Amino acid sequence: ITLYGTRGRSERQHLGRVGAERGGEDIVYIVTNKIGPLLHIRVENQSRAEEDSWNCEQIIVKPVRGRKEYIFACGRWLSLQKGDQMLSVILYTIDGGENTEYQLEVVTGDCRNAGSTDKVFVTLTGTKGSSEMKQLVGSTSAFSKGRVDLFIIQSKALGKLRECKVERAGASNKGWFLERVTVTDVRTGERTIFPCGDWLSQTEGDCKLVRELRLEGASNEILDFEMAVFTGDVRWAGTNARVSVTLFGSNGEHGPFVLQNDNKFPSYKRGRVNNFKLKVPNIGKIERMRIGHDNTNFGASWFLSKVELSDVGQNMRYVFPCERWLAVDA
Fold it and tell me: How far is CA 302 from CA 81, 227, 241, in A?
């Protein structure tokens, strides 16, 4: 377990063999530095064996010298063979103003072959940031034709929701027709509708497996952008790592996405300029950008000079100076 608070995080703590008895309760003491009031925790099962699969109902954390009690609901398997086949999970406490639960109502279309048995993942984005990508785990009949499925996910409070990114992953060649997703903030009761009315399919519609849904009434306009990435003219400035970008606008954010040309990852050479053409949802006036790389391949350190972004339709140009190393040892 790792604890995360307002003033930092604890070291990764080994709890031993907990959960040995079905319906049992284990009390474990850990020692950590002062990290402030808790925000969330990460829980991990280190064993990959099926016999060590663990269904964690909830975790209660209470400082020995304090009165406040933090309750983290879980209700899922930590296992490679059961549930969503994940060995770790981040849990949020919802009794503080920084965290909440969201109820997702997912409506599958009623057209022919609309249902799917593949895995579905969701990422929510609001005015205060984005959630982690969450798998929607339901019954065996989830995402069937004409069905309405309900899911609960835990996240930091995201503010006013702007976007719901839905992804379908699996080996099935069948499509999935998503009608809409309705998200309700359990803590505040605020309800947001994200219409879709399209396929997530490799064979139907435009053959896309990812949909970035905008809230009902918002613009679904897709804009053309051109991006120029300038690598500095200093020794060892270039990189072969994969570069990713997130754009932040006045009405939301887009990304992160990896920069590619013709589905290939380019090299960024010393003193050179890499140009890209982008399709970006209308997120309003661009206010800032986050750029980084995955630190892969030999000599991944990269000296970025600047990035220029042009809105082709609006004839508007944004310049983001950098003039610094993006490197773990910089």
Answer: 40, 18, 9
Give the span between the Cα atoms of 59 and 44, in whole angstroms. 12
**Would strands 161-169 and 119-126 be described as parallel, antiparallel, or unpaired?**
antiparallel
Q: Over the stretch 242-293, which tens digit does the pLDDT of each residue have?
A: 999 989 888 777 878 889 888 788 999 999 999 999 988 888 889 999 999 9
Phi/psi zone of residue 111: left (φ > 0), alpha (ψ -120 to 50 degrees), beta? beta
Task: Summarize pLDDT for 186-212 with one digit per residue, the tens.
Answer: 777 788 999 999 999 988 888 889 998
Cα 213 from chain centre: 14
Please say whether the dihedral angle defined by the alpha carbons of residues 95, 136, 124 and 129, taken in this order, is positive or negative: positive
CB atoms within 10 A of CB 46: 9
DSSP state of 200: E
Q: Round to whole Å and give the CA distance between 187 and 283.
A: 27
Which amino acid belongs to residue 17?
A: R
Asked if 213 and 181 count as a contact pair (C-beta separation under 8 A), the reply is yes
Q: Which candidate, 287, 304, 171, places its Cα nearest to that of 234?
A: 304
The 3-class SS string of 216-263 reads CCCCCCEEEEEEEEEECCCCCCCECCCEEEEEEECCEEEEEEECCECC
CB 64 within 8 A of CB 38: no
Which DSSP helix (H) or strand (E) runs through 59?
strand 54-61
pLDDT digits (tens, 9 = 90+) for 56-77: 888 999 988 877 888 887 877 8
Of 99, 84, 117, nearest to 39 by C-alpha is 99
CA distance 125 to 45: 29
